[in-house]
Amino acid sequence: MPTLSHRRADVVVTVLDSAGHPLADTDVVVAQERHAFLFGNIGFDFVGPANGEGDASETSSAGSAGALADLWLDVFNAATLPFYWGGFEPVRGRPDTARLLTAARWFADRGVVVKGHPLAWHTVGAPWLLDLTTDEIADAQDARIRREVADFAGVIDTWDVINEVVIMPVFDKEPNGLTRLAWDRGRIPTIRLAFDAARQTNPSATLLLNDFDMSTAYECLIEGVLEAGIQVDAIGLQSHMHQGYWGEGKTLAILDRFARFGLPLHLTETTLLSGELMPAHIEDLNDHQVASWPSTPDAEARQADEIERHYRTLVGHPAVQAATYWGITDEGAWLGAPGGLVRADGTPKPAYDALRRLVKDEWWLAPTTLRTSSTGRVPVSGFLGTYTVDGTAFSLERDGEVVVRLEG
Asked: Is the pTM of this model over 0.90?
């Protein structure tokens, strides 16, 4: 089992009183407030409630929005919000900016890092792109990216810039503007257009290239992108395991292959089922359509075991910076699959409890009373992240020394 030494730090905190004098021989309470590692989930379920749409206390089949939010916020510190162009701007010139900005601020106000997904993708495309020429599509895509990155700067500074480009030029499930653009101009020029627009608009943003294709085709694409001088801040790897858990061996092999580029890895879309697995012969997960896909007790136990193993593997790998689970609840889940961590009735599954034990127990420093030395020093050891000493915040980033001056 990995030691997780790359996730931890040992520091000596010198505690000063509000006047700047060492707080000697005094009991202080040290507590962890937030992980540096990004434990993420989608925030789609909260866009409506954040905008006051419906009664947040009203109980639906998924329980109250407030109760679901409490479960979400108790484990996760990073949210992905939906920017699918066809839903965000179905009518040209009428983007859903206000609603998404309100939702993004709702998360940010609670200390959650927010990511937008995606700025460019061939699926759920804006229907009005079909009426444009290729050059007009390129101009519209460029303008769309610049608008969103500018409008949300300071609230959303992390973006899945372009999604699933390996398949983009040959995607044939539905007509769309981005496939035509990628076919006519090529994958790398299309990626350059998207990244240039985002980078020029917000130079400090964290910009991801994201894909579900874990084959060498994605590696070759990344090589080409980097050789072309396009600055990618992190590599997005999707891990929808509707057909079964990858296992530690396959997961580590994938992480090692993509870690060779020297960029942080974000597991951007992870699902593990608590019901019957999708048949192995299905190539496109979207092709599997069933009338009912229930969560079952035996499969819930399997999901809990697999989610613990999967997160231990991810956190144990030094290249992984973030892991986003794709759905808090089964209610309205992608493909109708029982991939959520909370049942449709609002009750947590064993997988939720398993992940919470890792994030907020095993990998967490609960409030601890420590006594300072005669010079006001106290040792603190814990996972990288944000901490407080008697309510005053400090960061645990690396081994060394930290000085904290208490407030008031």
From this structure: yes
